[in-house]
Model the fold of this input.
Amino acid sequence: MKVIFVTGTDTGVGKTVISSAISAFFSLRKQMNVGVMKPFECGLSSTEGSLVPGDAIRLREASGSRDDLNIISPYTLESPVAPEVAAMLEHTDIDLSLVDKIFQNLKKSHDLLIIEGAGGIFVPIRKNVFFLDLIQKWNAPALVVSRLSVGTINHTLLTVHFLKKQGIKILGVVLNNTDGLDGVAAETNPEILNQYLDVPFLGIFPHVKDLLEASIDWELMAETLMRNINIEVLLNQ
Ligand SMILES: Nc1ncnc2c1ncn2[C@@H]1O[C@H](COP(=O)(O)OP(=O)(O)O)[C@@H](O)[C@H]1O
Ligand SMILES: [Mg+2]
Done:
């Protein structure tokens, strides 16, 4: 059984896009039993008058998982802030042993478990506990999603170096073309990053118009991932 913890340099860099594309690829193309987890989802989406955990729903759809949403995402909080802050605002007590129990069960019941973090590695979950600690506790290999555009060299190297320093295995870095801009930064970033990274650079996920809109073509997502990202690395952990 394998685990991939998808983290990123920031919020909005495409963790959900990449996590769901990976889930769709291994489920649809490799016929694997894929499980997903978004342990903390903050900032719920409004759909037909009710608030729902959009990332957890996407991941579930992409993977074909039949697990309940409240297992996939045990803590869904309304406020679009870090879990520690959202939990405080919403008077919720975060029980990490519950999250851990769910993780262990999901790990047991799937061939591959894809976990999406929230924001980056130093986002606090509860007092003095960060996503970094969760990755470390679960001994989960990390995949780092980063923007293709300007600012990415600094953010990517900071994230990768810190994860390495903590002894966390890094599967690689994916640069995501979130906004579809092709300026000089987007043209030069992959090469310069590759030069400074001492972990695999897995490729650039292209901009796909209206990517996470209402109905998603998961076959297309799987195909886009396969054509642009070195996916073999994800399984040869
Ligand atoms: N490759 C891409 N092409 C087009 N839109 C993208 C791409 N990657 C991300 N987006 C859009 O950017 C936004 C943030 O992506 P998301 O995966 O939700 O980021 P995160 O999970 O890191 O917060 C979403 O609206 C998504 O549709
Ligand atoms: Mg997300």
Notes: The radius of gyration is 17 Å. Residues 2-235 form a domain with the Rossmann fold fold (CATH 3.40.50.300).
